[in-house]
Amino acid sequence: MEHSGRAAAQPFVAAASATFPTVVDEHGVTSDSLGFKAVPNGVLVDEAGVIRWAKYGGFSVENAEDVAAVDRFLAGDDPGPSHDAAAPYRLGPTERELVATKLRLGQVLAGLGRGGEAVAAWRDALRLDPENLTIRKQIWAAEHPEKFHPTIDWDWQRAQLKAEREQEIADGICGPDGCPVPWATPNGGMA
Amino acid sequence: MRDFELTDQAERAWRLADALKGGAMVLVFYRGDW
Question: What is the pTM of this model?
Fold first, then answer.
């Protein structure tokens, strides 16, 4: 998942010394197809193309349960119950296509060196899909690269997300389910 | 799962349906610096 181009993915592929195919999804083809809004995700697909197990968000090779599910699957056994049978993507098909179009537009503009316009296009996509962390982080990475390199500033991300969501709610920018009710959300609306 | 074709970092094409001909797949979706 790399909306700013394959060149941005190359250092990570090289550092991982991966022996498996690593493909670059610049336009959100897979997130649109599977309906996920955040990474990392793990999806186990059998020879017939049927998803046998999936975990959307938080999948990790350092998680013993995730590794055990993969091991069972690769051994030909039932990987066990999925965390999520399907990613909870609530946008309609028109909204999803518009989000995808805005993402592609931003990628093209970024490739032309028009970073400000690229971010504007990504902000349009985020306005349509404000719970989409992959879009939000794409904007952060473009505007605050120092928060991602050489190390990731997770505390900054948490604080930034909280501040942005509070501002968006105050501005009336809501999710596909409408505006959140502050007193009905986890942590009293301070998530 | 819907088929898709993408390219790797060296711009070589990779299609899910072709890969599945070799057996089951573990797909991991991530972003490098997030």
Answer: 0.64
